[in-house]
# Entry
Amino acid sequence: TGRAGTGRGEGFQGDQGFQWGTALLLYLAMMVLWAALLVLVLWAGWKSTEMRAALVPAGAALIAVFVSLVGAGRTSSSLTEFVVAGAAATLTLFLLLRVITAQDAGRPDDVTARTKISGGASMTEGSTAEVAVDARDAHGTLELTLAVGDVEEASGSPCVPLSSLHFSGPDLDGSRTVTAREETSVTLPLKSAEARVRLDVTLTTEEGCALSLTKKKTVLRD
# Structure
């Protein structure tokens, strides 16, 4: 009888050790998943295409691991305490993630280096230049500053004050026309959910004028 009791005790301890080991592995797996998600947010941005593609499988994996961890914790009070500690750590990581993403959402994104202008070297009446912005994340507003200069003047008069620029494109939430200046700034609401923004800039000017458009600064905001 003593040996049988001892055997049952050893079996119970073995089962408990196995359960502890399983819970620990599940807990570590959950931490690794959270760390990977955090790194992805810092690298790609909260609203990037990569982030959206990773959220569903990462979220499903986290839920599956957490449910398994809770199930393992029901076997003993000590395991339950371990699971509670894991849940607290998970909540802390989630709050940290939200703080980081909230700060990232309110920060302007300077994408001047990722902005290209095609067809802006020598524009005449009715000419259209294309502006391409390759951002990492989707945003709500584009702030664009262009340098506008005379390539050819009409009858010796500067053409910039006599000109206007019309901004349009499928990625914009409406078109806009502004009077040209040597440094022309415009704020354009965006409707596209994509990170890449394409828009056209059409010149209206006097006959005989030719103007150049070059980028000065491009900023995206939420």
